[in-house]
Amino acid sequence: MCSQRTRVILGVGGVIITVAVVLTLPLKGTFIRRCKGFKKYDCEKLWSVFQQAYIGKDPCNIPMEAYDPLITEAPFRPACNRMMFWSKTKNLVQHFSKKREWFFTLEKTVLGSVLRALTWCGEEGSNKTFTSGCPGWRDCENNPVDSFWRRASAAFADVACGDVTAVLDGSIETPFDPKSIFGSIELKRFKSPRVRSLKIVLVSKKKAVSNCMSQSLKDLQRGLDARIAYSCTEMTESQFNECSSDPEKCGPCW
Ligand code: N1C
Predict the structure, then answer these.
(1) From the CA of 86, how far away is ligand 1's center (Å)?
(2) Which distant-in-sequence residues (6+ apart) come within 8 Å of 230 by Cβ?
C-alpha cells in the first residue's frame, strides 16, 4: 500500500519523466520515422551525430560548422539537371516538387526530410533536446535550426551540377535577397564547369511586382560565376502550378 507521501512522490516523479519524454520524443520519433523511409541509413547513428551538434550547448552559439559531422554521415549526392533551389517560395516549391518527382530539392534528401518544419535546441549543462522555447532568427543568428539549414544548403549547393533551377517570388520587390540562404550561400557555391546554367523561374502570386529586368535580378546575375549561363522566365502562380499537374506540359514551361 502506498502512503499519501509515496503517492505524491510517485506522482511528481511520473510527471517529471513524462515531461522529459514529451520534450525529446516527438523530435526523435519524427526524425527516426522519416529517416527509416530512406533505407540505407543507420538512423540511430544519424540521430546521435545530429544531437552532438547542439546538446549541452548555448543555443545562441551553434555555428553552421557544428553540423559538419552530420553532413559527413549523410553526404549529399549530385543529381545533375534536376536540382531545384528557391527563396521565399517554400510552399509553392514543396507542392511542385512533390508532384514533379524529377526535380530534386534539399527537402527530398534524408537530412532535409528528417528535419523539415522542426524546431530543436539544447541548453548548457543539460543533455536534453527541447522543441519549444528555442531561439529563432530574431533572437540570434547562430541558433541550432538556422545554422542547420545554412550548413545543409551549403553542402547541397556544393554538389549542384548541370542545369540548375531556382524559383523566386516575383510578387515582392527583392526576389533575390543577398542576405537569404539562396543569395548568401547557395548562389556563391555554384561553380562552372560543374554547373552549366542557372534558370531562374520568377513566379508571381497575385500581382507581379518584379520582372526579369528588375534590379534585384541584375544583382543576382552579378553574384553568379560569369561562366555559368543565366536565364530568367516569368510566370504566374497558376501557370507554375499547371506545370506541376501536367508533367507533359512542363518541358516548355521554362
Ligand atoms: O533563406 P532562403 O529562403 O533563400 O533559403 C532557401 C534555400 C533553398 O534553395 C533550399 O535549398 O535554402 C535551402 N533551404 C531549405 O531547403 C529549407 N527548408 C526549410 C533553406 N531554408 C529552409 N527552410 C527554412 O526556411 C529555414 O528555417 C530557413 O531559415 C527558411 C528560409 O526561407 P527563405 O528566406 O524563404
Answers:
(1) 7
(2) 197, 198, 200, 221, 224
Q: In the structure, which protein residues have their CB atom closer than 6 angstroms to any atom of ligand 1?
A: 85-88, 90, 106-107, 112, 145-146, 149, 153, 156, 180-182, 186
Q: Average pLDDT for consecutive 10-residue bins of the chain (254 residues)? A: 50 54 74 96 98 98 98 97 97 91 94 97 97 97 98 98 97 98 98 98 94 98 98 94 70 59
What positions carry a catalytic annotation? 80, 161
CATH number of 79-108+162-245: 3.40.50.720
For the CA of 90, the closest atom of ligand 1 is 35
Q: In the prediction, which pLDDT does 2 show? A: 38
| CA 87 to centroid of ligand 1, rounded, Å | 6
Q: Sheet with 195-204: list strands edge to edge.
A: 84-87, 162-169, 195-204, 229-236
- Specify whether the CB–CB gap between 212 and 202 falls below 8 A: yes
Going from N- to C-terminal start, the domains of the chain cover: 79-108+162-245
Q: How far is the CA of 94 from the centre of ligand 1 (A)?
A: 11
